[in-house]
Amino acid sequence: MKKKIEILAPAKNLVQGMAAINAGADAVYIGAPQFGARTNATNSLEDIAEMVKYAHLFKAQVFVVINTILYDNELDLCKKLIYQLYDIGVDALIVQDMAIMEMDLPPIVIHASTQANNRDAKHVKFLKDAGMKRAVLARELNLDQVREISEATDIELEFFVSGALCVSFSGNCYMSIAGGERSANRGSCAQNCRLPYQLIDGTGKTLIANSHLLSIKDLDLSDQLPNLIDAGVTSFKIEGRLKDIVYVKNNTSFLRKKLDAFLEQNTDKYQKASSGRTFYNFEPEMDRSFNRGYTDYFVNKRKEKIGNWESPKSQGQLIGKLLEIKANGYVIENYEKLNNGDGLYFINEQGEADGAQINIIVGNVVVPNTFKPLPVGTVIYRNSDAEFNKMVEKENSAVRKIGVSLRFTETADGFQLLAVDEDGHQCNLTLDTTKELAKSQESVIPNIKKNLAKTGNTPFTVDEIEVEFSNNWFLPISKVNEVRREVLEQLVDIRVKEYHREEFQITKTDHPYPVQKLDFMYNVSNRLARAFYKRHGVTEIEKAFELQWDPGKARVMTTKYCVKYELGKCARFQRDTMGEKLVEPLTLKHGENEYKLKFNCKPCEMEIWEKDAELEFEDEDEQLGYVNYKH
């Protein structure tokens, strides 16, 4: 049986969800009225029901994110919401709190959010055995680790392939709480990682004065789709439930084209996960919508710097270098790509991210609204593309159609039209009318075919038309149009009605959890989650950070991202070029907030602690076993 490969797009709201489906998404994920990890992207049940109906028309799926941690007083409300989501036809829930696995639920499919510690084969296999159908893998995994998980269990694997990256292990960032008492695990991330920091060494010396030291580039794994499919991934996820419609349509369309090219070459093994095909009136390019520059993160292991320290704002598309200054304008390489109204991005002479808006282009001179002196050689990006945005925002920039074959024949009392779509759904409509021969000798068939082919604003495109008459019957074109319109309207209803939703009833299990002691990073915040873990053999359970934060002394982040590596001071990978060691502890400072950095070189991880934490620092050479290393 062929494996279905899916593109999964974000839906901030109904309009953007429908736009994602039109652009070629096989599934969308959307927030409910509550309990989603983006409090600014909630949706009413009515809108989700509408989303479900539209998606199912194309055999695309709708997943609802219920991925915050839950408190005891929210459990009943959450359960009620899940029943409502099941009743309106939602395909699956994406959850992180194991309390949901403990509830008496309808037979709805459950996916494990990336916040559910999906970083190794043991944890992912446990979740599969507990009844989860899919795991959204941790972003920081490499291809070998993904393959290892795939070989250990037959759970569906979903992987982020584009969009913003969470610098922390997903679900294990507590900087929002420590920095201002807003919980990322409750949908209110304050994005402390995007703030500017000072970096201070153990002697009190400021190494870097004002940089976005935890801000990293955005993810682009579009070239890795074949490798990820080979490693076992079947769903490619686009981050961005807070992004605009241009971003959603552009990224979805770009990945759709990439994936379709792969599927066409591998029709024996893989197939598209939904129906229809999209017709584009623009050329998708991911770097033309919001991005901070791109990285493949760790999918090919640690091999390059991934930070974007200048700015957390959009860098956009590389245009070229500044060649010269003329009057109050710039002569820029590839200036012909630019348009009036575009936004430019560059790093100014102070090393800060800066920008300007184009007022007019005269010959080869780009004249900004506000001229800013820049040195020749400055690299110029476009981070707002006025023409492109206008084009993509149009409703017809991406139009999705389902293939249909029409067969128009005669009956004893008139005519009938049979419509069969690409998935085999059928609708047959008869037209009772007195049959008259056409006055002209000219065949009526070409004209009937021409009018049957006019599908207009319906979700169908006609791939094949057969007209079989025993005589040259006259038929008013209005009747042909009417029967075509009715048959296609009914076919829409038939497709939605005959949509098959996978169902799965969770039953309670008691197989052993991979570890017996859970620290606060497991985010246990209610009695049901506690009961779930205890039944699976866990003996010690620490409360979630939100319930036990001890201000000033907590570990607020664990990450694969490493400030030492970004500085070229990594004792493992940059040993030959690193020069003098940094004097630890290194401290990050933003306003009144200070954090200590601790480097665990063996697992290749960095921890961020609040300033009053009492930490022991082990020399990196000792950690890595370079005991005889002279320095």
Provide structural commentary.
The chain is an alpha/beta fold. The chain contains 16 helices and 32 strands. The strands form six sheets. An eight-stranded parallel barrel has the order 1-2-3-4-5-6-7-11, surrounded by five helices. It has a six-stranded antiparallel β-sheet with strand order 9-8-30-31-32-29. A hairpin with a 2-residue loop joins strand 30 and strand 31. The longest helix has 21 residues, at 245-265. It starts with a strand and ends in a 7-residue tail after the last helix. The model has no long low-confidence stretch (mean pLDDT 94).
SSE class: alpha/beta
Strand neighbour order, sheet with most strands: 1-2-3-4-5-6-7-11
Overall pLDDT score: 94
- Helix proportion range: 10-25%
Q: What distance separates the N and C termini?
A: 60 Å
Largest sheet: 8 strands, parallel, barrel
Give me the number of helical elements: 16
Shape: globular
Poorly predicted runs of 5 or more residues: none
| Estimated share of beta-strand residues | 25-35%
Radius of gyration: 29 Å
* Strand count: 32
